[in-house]
Specification:
With 110 residues, this protein is an alpha+beta fold. The protein is 33% helix and 30% strand. It is built from three helices and four strands. The protein has helices spanning 2-14, 60-74, 88-95; strands at 17-23, 26-38, 41-51, 80-81. A four-stranded mixed sheet has the order 1-2-3-4, with helices on both faces. The protein is globular and about 40 Å long. The termini are far apart.
Length: 110
């Protein structure tokens, strides 16, 4: 858990928004959002969403993502997005109401 606590502290110092799920005062999951200014107004980039393996598939990630989505209106974000790998994470985001963007292609070198 120390690594999670260190990462949360690092993100908070960076100015990103953070939501942290805790159990008995210990972080078990977190979501980090970076707000940026675009040509159509501010948008949010979900930079990280993680849940400790012991607590996955118990709704923690879904609750964190709902909180991030609920803040969209308050923050007046035109768009909320995140980069997602194919597989279980992709299915999770689709079930949460996210759609694949038709505007982007991810290029990578391996």
């Amino acid at each position: 858990m120390r690594a999670a606590e260190a990462r949360i502290a690092q993100v908070l110092k960076s100015g990103q928004l953070a939501w942290v799920a805790c159990l008995y005062g210990q972080p078990i999951g977190f979501a980090f959002l970076s707000v940026k200014e675009g040509h159509q107004g501010p948008y949010g980039e979900l930079t990280e969403l993680a849940v400790h393996p012991f607590f996955q598939n118990q709704g923690v990630g879904g609750k964190l993502l709902r909180e991030v989505k609920n803040s969209r209106k308050r923050l007046q974000l035109t768009t909320l997005y995140g980069l997602v790998y194919r597989g279980p994470a992709e299915d999770f985001f689709k079930k949460s109401g996210f759609k694949a963007s038709q505007k982007t292609v991810v290029m990578a070198i391996h």
